[in-house]
Amino acid sequence: MSSDIDVLVREVGLRDGLQNTETIVPTEGKLAWIEAELAAGVREIEVASFVPARLMPQFADAEEVVTRAMALPGLTVMALAPNLKGAERAFALGVHKVDYVTSVSRTHNIKNVRREREASLEDFKRIVQARDAAGLKGRTQLAAGLSTALGCSYEGRIAVDEVRQCAAFLAEAGADEIMIADTVGYADPRQVREVFKAVLAETGDIPVAAHFHDTRGTGLANVSAALDCGIRRFDASLGGLGGCPYAPGASGNIVTEDLCFMLDSMGLRTGIDLQRLLAVRDIPARYLGADSLSGALARAGLPRHYRTATERATA
Amino acid sequence: MSSDIDVLVREVGLRDGLQNTETIVPTEGKLAWIEAELAAGVREIEVASFVPARLMPQFADAEEVVTRAMALPGLTVMALAPNLKGAERAFALGVHKVDYVTSVSRTHNIKNVRREREASLEDFKRIVQARDAAGLKGRTQLAAGLSTALGCSYEGRIAVDEVRQCAAFLAEAGADEIMIADTVGYADPRQVREVFKAVLAETGDIPVAAHFHDTRGTGLANVSAALDCGIRRFDASLGGLGGCPYAPGASGNIVTEDLCFMLDSMGLRTGIDLQRLLAVRDIPARYLGADSLSGALARAGLPRHYRTATERATA
Asked: Domain Pyruvate carboxyltransferase: where (chains A, B) (predicted)?
């Protein structure tokens, strides 16, 4: 992470948000959204998913979106690969970061990708090998995600030790980043502390990111708990767009704007201009309808006399 | 606090919620709401405000609501008194708890009650004397609130030392409880820790409660930070009803249902049955419209296989 920010906020609305929408956002709309977030100061964006277009037509333009996003100076471009085949599509473009996700919940993993959890974990090793064989080691980072790490619609609570073991496997397999996801919004701050402490004990110097959903209102409380553990990378979605089609009852990710406001208020610099970020909402709203976006900061506006973390640090 | 719960959740929707609604909820509706929350396990409810009926016709039935609520076994009945006159009305009924609020922000205090902050603080002493003179010491508790303690629409950030001094004054003056309120939803978890630690250093054995609004999405994160400081009393409003008519941009209190879910998930017993609590929403919705109630738990439902804090403690 560059030294002028304290916390990296990664926008995942273009992937986690759009994978649940019926309306297909045109490529130009996606690029406008990416460019506007970058201009607001967002430095890392998950822009697409390399799933087969017949399964998710929303991502039929993944190659074009990734290629054009990679041409934007200062942006780290991430794309999801659901399997080795998807990862190979990503490697062909030399994308900056590929994320690959395994469910800690065995049942959810089978429902989601029709494979046993252990088979999915083993696949990550093959993705690392394919990346290295493509000569992309040190150029394309591999972020390994663990979904349903804080609860599962099918299995309920997930044992902390299961998460720890999976994280240890991925760290050993060569992950450049580990992402811990509360896919269905079951987590509470106490559990977050417990799970992240267990994960951090296995991951050494590998950065750990948190991916929270705000399904039951605890999203930012969980961020605060993760901050207490030393986590400094968070996924979020503009307007809280998103969810998981195979996890009944899941709703959106934590809201990027609200996350950035809380972090900034806490004196943690994100590099993101809150007013400019709020203005970006107009772009997805144009395609998906303003009603599809949530967010408390957008509703209430910044506090009067608000001074940003940077302003306070330099005052 | 009784030993079978870890955290006291106080419902304030009938006061802080209704003071901003144009629709007047009939007395029978208020009583049905109070009874249903009590049946769900809520042990303390702020049921009315002793403001002049010409200013807030919503509370013209304050005497009747308080009297009938006090007849319900097991319920602690609290009512707001904006001044000595209001407190005297409350004392005449022997209400269990009277809360009286001063703004830490001098500007907000003048706008809200047309008095200097120091005059408002001094009035609390007179309220204590009036309570004692009425022979209610040990019977009617006096909760002293400090609003805008974490930010003000007029003044912006509020110095921690101002909050500390006001809390020290109220503790010295004989408050049975001190309530720290983020009236306009400016607070972040770091600030909450700072302010509550400063307050707790002045309040000795006097219980301190937190009253958060969720205006900018940080409400439950602030609860979690307050829990870290040892706070075990929280105000909340069913469906997040509420705000402050004199604080531009303020929106509702934290949602009682979401607060109870987070606490329960953390293993903190509230004594409140989440499903029964969710069902209570039908009562205010009947009068105010379902759209006036927010809440993530109501939208998403309890997690599947959810086990309550009590079930887990006794498993």
From this structure: 7-278
Q: Is B140 left (phi over 0), alpha (psi -120 to 50) or beta?
A: beta
CATH 3.90.460.10 holds for B8-314: no
ipTM of predicted complex = 0.94
d(CA A125, CA A128): 5
**pLDDT tens-place string over residues A188-197:** 999 999 999 9
Question: Quick check: B156 and A305 CB within 8 A?
Answer: yes
Contact list in B for residue A220 (CB cut-off 8 A) is 217-218, 220-221
Closest to A44 measured CA to CA, from A5, A83, A81: A5
| CA distance readout (Å), A41 to A38, A100, A227, A232, A261 | 5, 25, 21, 16, 13
Q: Which of A152, A166, A229, A244 is catalytic?
A: A244
Q: In angstroms, what separates the C-alpha of A309 from chain B's closest C-alpha?
A: 12
Residue B58: the pLDDT is 96
- pLDDT reported for residue B67: 98
- Is A235 in contact with A206 (CB distance < 8 Å)? no
Helix (H, G, I), strand (E, B) or coil at B202: helix
Length of chain B: 315
Cβ–Cβ of A220/B217 closer than 8 Å? Answer: yes
Tokens of A191: 């559990």
Residue-level pLDDT at A242: 80
d(CA B125, CA B118): 11
pLDDT in tens, A45-63: 999 999 999 999 999 999 9
Q: Out of B153, B216, B225, name the one closest to residue A304 (CB).
A: B153
Minimal C-alpha gap between A224 and chain B (Å):
6
